[in-house]
Amino acid sequence: ATADSGASTIFDKIINKEIPSTIVYEDDKVLAFRDVNPQAPVHVLVIPKLRDGLTQLGKAEERHGNILGRLMYAAKIVAEKEGILDGFRVVINNGPGACQSVYHLHLHVLGGRQMKWPPG
Ligand code: 5GP
Question: Which chain positions lie within coiled-coil regions (predicted)?
Answer without folding.
Answer: none
